[in-house]
Amino acid sequence: MIYLDHNATTPVLPEVRDAMLEILSYPSNPSSIHAFGRNAKASMEKARQNVAWMFGIDLRRDGYSLVFTGSGTESNNLVMSSIGSSLRTIVSAVEHPSILRHKDYNDNIDILDVDKNGIARLDLLEEWLKDNRGGLVSIMMANNETGVIQPIKEIARLVHQYDGLLHSDCVQAAGKIDVDLIDLDVDFISISGHKFGGSAGVGALIYKEKYSLMPLIIGGGQERGVRAGTENLAAIVGIGVASRYYHRKITPDGIALRDLFESRITEVCKDVVIFGSEVVRLHNTSMISMPDVPANQQLIAFDMEGIAVSSGSACSSGKVKASHVLKAMGAEDKLADCAIRVSLGIGNTKAEVDRLAEVWIKIWKKQ
Ligand code: PLP
Questions:
Q1: Contact status, residue 164 vs residue 135, Cβ threshold 8 Å
Q2: At what angle do helices 350-366 and 295-304 cross, to 10 degrees?
Q3: How far is CA 188 from the centre of its chain?
Q4: Does 232 sit in the ligand 1 pocket, CB within 6 Å?
Q5: Which of 132, 152, 133 has the alpha carbon at shortest distance from 92?
Q6: Which of 66, 162, 341, 350 is deepest in the core (most CB within 10 A)?
Q7: Band (253; pLDDT cuts 50, 70, 90)
Q8: How far is CA 20 from CA 8, 13, 38, 206, in A?
Q9: CA distance 318 to 322
Q10: Measured in angstroms, how far is the CA atom of residue 325 from the centroid of ligand 1?
């Protein structure tokens, strides 16, 4: 199989697997007082600092805290439920459901439109901020479907100009692009271990320590009372190791490979549409529409050829719904319904991308 679905989840790095197996050989509850517990606590704190370093943060002196959670979804929920419950909030129309679906439960949430390239409309954001000084804004760093990267530094400046707070979902950006939290001046970011070589079951929220968070999960005093429950130490150690290795292993070849794929396709099929191609995107992501071939038909055909890709459509209760991201970008249904996402990662080769292009063209010609 050729795995080209790294935005869904990445393979666990060998260094991460080794570190996790080592931790799993001992009883490890970081709250225990005995030597096993103290060792566990030391491993957890080392992981915390390593993850923070990935975003340029020294937890001892930069004024940020990091709380480990169970997933990117939980980190997003923590901000939306804790900070968002008391503030008027606006979120971009292309956010992950773990942000967007809060609108179903909270009338205080507005949706910020994006332009045809998927970039948040800063003119509309400024209007909103004028009416809602001090509100919460949530705009992701990079989109999971298209890879489109938002101008977060500019957004942070604008939000702070109106005394607002900015949360950015960095689940897809982490490990793929440099995220310097101090330079960007974002107040809260969410990340997820399994998107950059760690395991599933761990995420984190990094935030300016002057803000206090109300816990979603109440119980013991773990994570300084912000997230109760005995920590998933193996996964936490794993994300710590992943944060040291992943970005070093992602090579600039990734850019060349994605572009190679896109140029092969566009040479042969002039009607192909690549979403977000006019703006800066993650170098590993291509959301591409094959004229007149529904995405689910493509996915089956790719799978039969041994290639794992995914569609831009969310599947719920057996029905395939058009991607909310492409809809928000104003894509016509017939284009959105035929879009698949290719997301490259560590270990993908030129030969694999050649094969992907060859199979793409074969499926398109066969229709
Ligand atoms: N945010 C974005 C942008 C994502 O792509 C995902 C997962 O696909 C999440 C949040 C949720 O992360 P997790 O799978 O860790 O819950």
A1: yes
A2: 130
A3: 14
A4: no
A5: 152
A6: 341
A7: low
A8: 21, 11, 17, 22
A9: 13
A10: 14
DSSP string, 117-165: TS-B-HHHHHHHHHHSTT-EEE--SB-TTT-BBP-HHHHHHHHHHTT-E
Nearest CA to ligand 1 atom 12: 72
pLDDT value of position 251: 62
Chain center to CA of 149 = 11
Instruction: Name the H helices within 200-273.
Output: 233-249, 253-268
Note the pLDDT tens digit of each residue in 98-137: 999 999 999 999 999 999 999 999 999 999 999 999 999 9
**Cβ(109)–Cβ(89) below 8 Å:** yes
**Taking 80 as the threshold, does the pLDDT of residue 254 lie above it?**
no
Q: Which residues pair with 188 in a beta bridge?
A: 167, 207
Quickly tell me which residue has 């298209």 as its tokens. Answer: 146
Question: Ligand 1 within 6 A of 298 CB?
Answer: no
pLDDT of residue 249: 73
Q: Ligand 1 centroid vs 352 CA: distance in angstroms?
A: 26
Whether pTM exceeds 0.85: yes
Q: Is 315 a catalytic residue?
A: yes
- More confident call, 121 vs 253: 121
169 ligand 1 Cβ < 6 A: yes
Does ligand 1 have an atom closer than 6 angstroms to the CB of 80? no
In tens, the pLDDT along 217-229 reads 999 999 999 999 9
